[in-house]
Specification:
Distance between the termini: 24 Å
Strand content: under 5%
Helix content: over 70%
Length: 196
């Protein structure tokens, strides 16, 4: 059974994770529109693929172990590594391997989208141990949607103009790492693979 502190930590983690997910999507769309043009196509493709990939990620969680918190921490670490390097990867691929740029950008969208899609089912299931599934879903979705709004406002108003794409990518990746660290520290006694 989760404590109130643990529930609060999970909801805050989800809020920050949702901010990160929306910013990754915007980074990829923005770099692609800068490099390839046709911004309407690039943003439409990114949004559609990202949402589809979130659905794939949700399906994948059915086949994971019941170590929901450990799986969530692993997902955040993977997002920190892959998402944090997204800006740099795309800027390096375009001049040195132009013919593979679309493949790489689509691959990043699918992988990051799938990882983001795994967050909601994992946390909803973990929270269902504390309160009813109905309340868990309501809490998780409200925090997730709020985080998506924050991310979509932070990116064009603060992150992109002040930091640029590569720096923003690194900082957002670092936020995912903070989420993983916070979750691990709050649930330390519940983790079976502490060293990992």
């Amino acid at each position: 059974v989760l404590t109130t502190k643990q529930v609060a930590a999970l909801l805050v983690s989800l809020l920050v994770a949702a901010v990160c997910g929306s910013v990754y999507e915007l980074i990829i769309s923005t770099v692609s529109s800068y490099r390839l043009g046709n911004s309407v196509y690039q943003f439409s493709l990114a949004i559609g693929l990202f949402m589809f990939s979130m659905g794939l990620g949700s399906i994948v969680t059915k086949y994971l172990s019941t170590k929901y918190i450990e799986n969530f921490i692993f997902v955040e670490i993977m997002l920190a590594i892959i998402g944090g390097a997204t800006g740099l990867i795309l800027f390096l691929v375009f001049p040195y391997a132009r013919e593979y740029y679309e493949f790489v950008s689509i691959s990043l969208i699918v992988v990051i989208g799938a990882l983001v899609g795994m967050e909601i089912p994992l946390l909803t299931t973990a929270l269902a141990e504390f309160r009813s599934t109905r309340h868990s879903i309501a809490d998780v979705m409200s925090f997730d949607y709020s985080g998506a709004l924050i991310g979509s406002l932070l990116f064009p108003l603060i992150l992109l103009p002040k930091l640029g794409l590569i720096e923003t990518s690194f900082i957002i990746g670092f936020l995912n790492l903070i989420v993983a660290t916070l979750t691990a520290s709050v649930f330390w006694d519940h983790l079976n693979h502490k060293k990992t």
